[in-house]
Automatic annotation (TrEMBL):
PANTHER family xref list: GLYCOSYL HYDROLASE-RELATED (PTHR11051), PROTEIN-GLUCOSYLGALACTOSYLHYDROXYLYSINE GLUCOSIDASE (PTHR11051:SF8)
Name under which the protein is recorded: Family 65 glycosyl hydrolase
Glycoside hydrolase family 65 C-terminal domain segment(s): 726-790
Residues of the active site: E496 (proton donor)
Annotated source species: Actinoallomurus iriomotensis
UniProt-listed Pfam families: Glyco_hydro_65C, Glyco_hydro_65m, Glyco_hydro_65N
UniProt GO BP: carbohydrate metabolic process
């Protein structure tokens, strides 16, 4: 069949026509269905892992650690476990082979991802070697209603033949973590089979993860609706259990199979053993139609809170797709789980399901939509505060040092070696020096508080986490008497191309501007947070943390005297010494290699290193303009004693834009953001590039290993906060729209300080805000720095370009 890439029809549907083995893994990732508790890739149910297909099911927070022998040493890696597969379902006509799309003449193959209802549908027709034509109509869901359930409905029609059809529906625990080619040399068997069994049409199996000892139990109920069933048998082997049912078919006749799966783990609740829970879930779940109806209603409720209208057109579809995958990874069900924000969703095995700083691109957006989910995700960090304190202590510091990559227990999970597939060499991985991850956590705590007004969380958990992060930075900063400044040495910024000075014998860079400025911001905020706490709670917390006046004075001093390095022309230097690096021959490399996003791999394969060049993988200094408004930056630089003219922003943007390869999908999001006011068409181009990132696999082969959650949420936030100019400051919701020319208008419903359904619509002429009726106190709103308007529940306000137009 002629292959075809993703087509989208309407804002709620992604359609794939045809079947192309080379595209299968990308589709599997993009057609993943999930509910925040677990997710299953959109793999064909008849497929097992091989060169074409890669079925995968991942449970939020379910990790396992294995040791491998690599480049002459033992390394331990923790993986998000590929859990037993609930999908297996295939069939064969009398004397024929089991169906698989690549083994037969496919007459038709169409896959459709229905975003509104959370359904994956597939239609196909095929002809076997005896000329028998069979049609299949399949739909599946991973329930947003009951997070432990998934279901699939399959109808198989004999178009032109009669005879028996054997159906096989099973559960497969023989799966391994083999989804990422670069990790193939590493240990991948995380499941130890415990038991499997059957009771009529109910099948189950249980496994334990190899070292983390999480019990995973999977069960399924199979119901076959056919005119005549002539045989039912159960077959098993270690790690596999299947129900075979034989039915009689005649031309035009159809058989329907309903498979309902229940998935539980020992991470859920101690109240019920997972095996019993899984069996109960599968056995007592309603029929597919009812499950689908409940699931559809749950999605409807989610979409009501997730509405983000970007004026229709192709951008709308991708916005919906991104929202869909964000909500499938972190949903209200995540609130009941101890899990963080996995950088690649629950959609594949890239980065081993680890949690990086990417939540910086996810949580501020979600804080204005699903604050309860954000609170739960911040708790993932808070629970790992003891581990972060330990890490700081082991590094000789006070406070909390969060790991660059985090998994189950909060220890540092960054691999020590990584493979450059271009050179075949295993290389030291120094990315753990990206200590700035803690600053992202502090920023998110602050943003969450600004959006929700949730003082209780701040008192109980947020403040402690933020203060401990601040404490770490106050301690790490060393005072240079000769310059009267504090330095932060030996770290990495977000740009992963630079991990050391050229020819240095140890990794790390000094005075990374992003780190230093955000450390100053965090220390300053730490003081504000203490002021926000009611005196009694503040005293208790200070006592518990033994936070003395001297230490707070140090917070203040460091926040005023951290060093920021500037180039001779006033551009903020990415780190001390950056200006002395060589310029890269960008054109030469582009001509030679075409795609130079992974310039680091190219240079290393050439025996060179990006450390020698003014070349960045992604936004680094520019992250400052992403996170902080020009006013905030001006205030921060003034506090630091630096003159920072507003024109320094466009100059700094221009400087780094010319020296960035965008080797991370996060980069396009940041550039779209920082260009939003100075170059709207360029901002829009980056926005579209970020929208394309996963749908068209812009980074070439990476999406099949998992979506890029930060970039997906980042595009949503571009529409939500950047183009509307939405800013939460001092208890005031400020808007200041700057829409790119191709974006006619924006409309959304936000959750703000206990108000659900705050309607915000904007174009370049006016902004309208409307609060639904409620008993909540009024909110304070303003346009840019204009006067504050008090907006009561049940009222609306329209601001024309020049100011407030009128209240309704
Ligand atoms: C980026 C990091 C990011 C990580 C996980 C890397 O390629 O450079 O900034 O945190 O991917 O998404």
């Amino acid at each position: 069949m002629p292959p075809e890439r993703a087509r989208t029809t309407g804002p709620w549907c992604v359609v794939y026509q045809g079947f192309d083995p080379a595209e299968v893994r990308l589709r599997e990732a993009l057609c993943t269905l999930g509910n925040g508790y677990f997710a299953t890739r959109g793999a064909a149910p008849e497929a097992s892992a091989g060169s074409v297909h890669y079925p995968g099911t991942y449970i939020a927070g379910c990790y396992d650690r294995l040791s491998s022998w690599v480049a002459g040493r033992s390394v331990a890696n923790e993986d998000l476990v590929n859990a037993p597969n609930w999908l297996p379902l295939t069939f064969r006509a009398e004397n024929g082979r089991w169906f698989a799309p690549e083994g037969f003449r496919l007459l038709e193959h169409r896959q459709e991802l229905d975003l509104r209802h959370g359904l994956l549908r597939r239609w196909l027709r095929y002809q076997d070697e005896e000329g028998r034509v069979t049609a299949v109509d399949q739909q599946r869901l991973v329930s947003m209603d009951d997070p432990h359930l998934a279901a699939m409905l399959t109808t198989i029609r004999a178009e032109n033949w009669s005879g028996s059809l054997e159906l096989r529906s099973g559960l497969d625990a023989r799966v391994r973590n083999r989804g990422v080619a670069r990790y193939r040399g590493l240990a991948d068997r995380h499941l130890i089979v415990d038991s499997a069994g059957a009771d009529g049409d109910l099948l189950w199996l249980t496994v334990d993860t190899a070292t983390s000892a999480v019990r995973i139990a999977l069960a399924c109920r199979n119901a076959v609706h056919a005119r005549e069933a002539t045989g039912r048998e159960t077959h098993g082997e270690p790690g596999w259990i299947a129900r075979h049912v034989t039915v009689e078919m005649s031309p035009g006749e159809a058989v329907t199979v309903e498979k309902v799966a229940g998935l539980h783990t020992s991470l859920d609740s101690p109240a019920e053993p997972p095996a019993a829970a899984a069996r109960r879930s599968a056995a007592s779940a309603p029929c597919f139609a009812e499950l689908r109806a409940r699931h559809g209603r749950a999605w409807e409720r989610l979409w009501r809170r997730a509405r983000l209208d970007v004026g229709g057109g192709p951008a709308q579809r991708t916005v919906n797709l991104h929202m869909f995958h964000v909500l499938q990874t972190v949903s209200p069900h995540t609130a009941g789980v101890d899990a963080g924000v996995p950088a690649r969703g629950l959609h594949g095995e890239a980065y081993r399901g680890h949690v990086f700083w990417d939540e910086l691109f996810v949580l501020p957006f979600l804080s204005l939509r699903f604050p309860e989910v954000v609170r739960a995700l911040l708790r993932y960090r808070r629970r790992r505060l003891p581990a972060a304190r330990r890490a700081a202590r082991e590094a000789g510091h006070t406070g909390a040092m969060y790991p660059w990559q985090s998994g189950s227990d909060g220890r540092e999970e960054t691999q020590v070696l990584h493979l450059n597939p271009r050179s075949g060499r295993w290389l030291p991985d120094n990315s753990r020096l990206q200590r700035h991850v803690g600053l992202a956590i502090a920023y998110n705590i602050w943003q969450y508080h600004q959006a929700s007004g949730d003082l209780e969380f701040l008192c109980e958990e947020g403040a402690e986490t933020l203060l401990e992060i601040a404490r770490f930075w106050a301690d790490v900063a060393t005072y240079d008497r000769s310059r009267g400044r504090y330095d932060i040495r030996g770290v990495m910024g977000p740009d992963e191309y630079h991990d050391a000075y050229p020819d240095a014998d140890r990794p790390g860079l000094d005075n990374n501007a992003y780190t230093n400025v955000m450390a100053a911001w965090t220390l300053w905020r730490a003081l504000d947070v203490l002021d926000l706490l009611p005196p009694g709670r503040r005293a208790v917390l200070r006592e518990r943390l033994a936070l003395t006046d001297e230490e707070l004075a140090r917070f203040d001093d460091v926040s005023r005297r951290l060093r920021v390095v500037f180039h001779r022309d006033g551009v903020i230097s990415q780190f001390e010494g950056y200006e002395e690096l060589a310029e890269l021959d960008w054109e030469g490399y582009r001509n030679k290699y075409g795609d130079i996003r992974r310039l680091d791999r190219i240079l290393e394969a050439e025996g060179d290193t990006p450390n020698r060049y003014k070349a960045s993988k992604q936004a680094d200094v520019l992250m400052l303009f992403y996170l902080l408004t020009a006013d905030e930056l001006r205030a921060l630089f003034a506090r630091l004693g630096y003159r920072f003219a507003p024109r320094a922003i466009p100059e700094t943007v221009r400087y780094y834009l010319a020296r960035t390869s965008h080797g991370s999908t996060l980069s396009a999001v940041v550039h779209a953001w920082v260009l939003a006011r100075s170059d709207r068409p360029a901002s829009w181009r980056f926005f579209l590039e970020a929208l394309d990132g996963d749908l068209h696999d812009v980074q070439g082969g990476t999406t099949s290993e998992g979506i890029h959650l930060g970039a997906m949420a980042g595009t949503l936030d571009l529409a939500q906060r950047c183009y509307t100019g939405l800013e939460l400051r001092d208890g005031v919701l400020r808007v200041d729209p700057a829409l790119p020319p191709d974006l006619p208008g924006l409309a959304m419903e936000l959750e703000y300080r206990g108000h659900s359904g705050l309607r915000l619509s904007a174009d370049n002429r006016a902004v309208r805000l409307a609060l639904p009726l409620s008993t909540r106190p009024p909110v304070r709103v303003a346009v840019d720095d204009g006067p504050v308007t008090v907006l009561a529940a049940g009222r609306s306000v329209r601001f024309g370009l020049g100011g407030e137009d009128g209240k309704g």
